[in-house]
Amino acid sequence: MTEKLSSPVPTLTRQPFFTTRFGLCLLSLFTLLLTFSPAPGQAELVDRVVAVVNDEVITLSEVNEEGQPFFKKISTQVEAHELSEAIARAREEVLNGLIDKRLIAQEAAKLRITVTEQEVAAAAQRIRDQNGVDRDAFLAELDTMGLSEAGYLDNLKNQILQSKLINYEVRSKIVITDDQVLDYYDENYTRRVNSGGYYLLQMGFSWNADKDERDEARQRADRVRNLVLAGQDFGELAEKFSDLPSAKDGGDIGEFQETDMAEAMRTAITPLAAGDISPIIEIGAGFQFFKLVSSRQGGIVYQAPFESVQEKIRKDLYEKQLTKEFDIWVKKIKNEAYIKRL
């Protein structure tokens, strides 16, 4: 009756279309979709029930609509002979997510928790502001991901509903102590460097040979650097926007000596004080800028004063604990729910 909580997550020679890898993928995808479509005169099978969650049903059309962006992405990334299995796994993940959404909506209804259109619109505006883009640019980005505005707003509404439900059900169980905050700071905001070293965070924005791409990369670099200067966290922005391998580490590239740096990099970094952001420089086919973490004195280097980050740390620890407690709560309601896959 119960399921584990899951959330759904992409120089040619001319040859016949369906002999190319992309053509084979599309052909396989087309064949898969046909298996979920009725023959003429059998329209009643289009929207068959695929799961029951308490007294509500989930239909095949809901799975197809929710999963369309994922299926499209998979069709361009997976080898043709693996496509059938990949689509099947994706459908299972999408169905898991729909079951979770349905359970959350049911629990929210019991508690009379609702989300208004104004709340969704305000949340969407905050997200655009945080990313420094207007509505048209944001919609264009959604389109490249295969998402409609309506689908995006519906997902956002579900996230807000879940957040309200989390706050109602588990907030009172969470206490973050000062010792936990200090331990996290010591582990994540301090580094030991050698005397004379420059401890750096980095962001980079690359382009190919096209001049328009170069101009666009410069615009992205300017926009993200302005977000850093406005006070947003360098590491979080690096993870989200940087094109460089260091993005996965929040832009952390460790310690450099002056002799390790290219001339343009050395010129930009050596005048900085700890905490400063460098100007944007051009290195190869990319624009980069840096944050100087160290003060060049050796010993322990602090990425930020404790007072300036303690509330952020407390919030991060709180959200992690909130997620943990919510997972426990979801497991409980799933154990109590009637869930049947058909």
TrEMBL record:
Query: Which InterPro entries does the entry link to?
Result: OMP_Chaperone_SurA, PPIase_dom_sf, PPIase_PpiC, PPIase_PpiC_CS, Trigger_fact/SurA_dom_sf
A GO molecular-function term, please? peptidyl-prolyl cis-trans isomerase activity
**What keywords does the record list, in alphabetical order?**
Isomerase, Rotamase, Signal
Q: Where is the PpiC domain?
A: 198-294
- Extract the PROSITE patterns matched here: PPIC_PPIASE_1, PPIC_PPIASE_2
Q: Which SUPFAM superfamilies match?
A: FKBP-like, Triger factor/SurA peptide-binding domain-like
Q: Does the keyword Isomerase apply?
A: yes
Q: What is this protein called in UniProt? A: SurA N-terminal domain-containing protein
Organism in which the protein naturally occurs: Candidatus Desulfatifera sulfidica
